[in-house]
């Protein structure tokens, strides 16, 4: 198993300790209700991120002079994020820097919702820590230690994936392949890597043109996450990939 995890693309680790004790979980586990799309969507836009942060997102991809001229001729200035989207874009980026809080009931609800939606198992009194989390592709008994480089955004993206109408069935289909006896791979860890890929696309301006033609940064961000995971899934299924290939596949998607 250790060799399999070594093939996963490594991301910077964010401290998620929150100074809690595994034997002192403040949430009553048998009273958790599953989170809805509307609740999570509202939370994304209401979470306190510690003050204003309006630094503009720029298109920062490296390209030569001719490509810059061509880009300007084709897109005029549409590759720059429109001003009214800047705050929302930065909110998403800053959520990636927020840490999991074991005392936050919504964070716990997200974890339990992910587990139940993917596995179909609704277990009253399911423990916050335990090997059951490995069933959905976390590395160990505490899922929060796997939110690498994407913080709470990784948790929220995976939750959106399993609860969004018309998309949740796709998440189940992809998860089922991750549990295949031959083609198995760590679903949750792969999700964190895909969130990191799309986050970089937001940061470097690759999503700007799509966002500018939409109503919401979050909607486009989620759509690209779903699409990227589907692309990964199709490669994995069509090419009969195994756990030994996962590092190469993810690295290829980051290019």
TrEMBL record:
Superkingdom in the source lineage: Eukaryota
Database matches in InterPro entries: ELMO_dom (IPR006816), ELMO_domain-containing (IPR050868)
The ELMO domain, residue ranges: 106-255
Protein name: Elmo domain-containing protein 3-like protein
Lineage: Eukaryota, Metazoa, Ecdysozoa, Arthropoda, Chelicerata
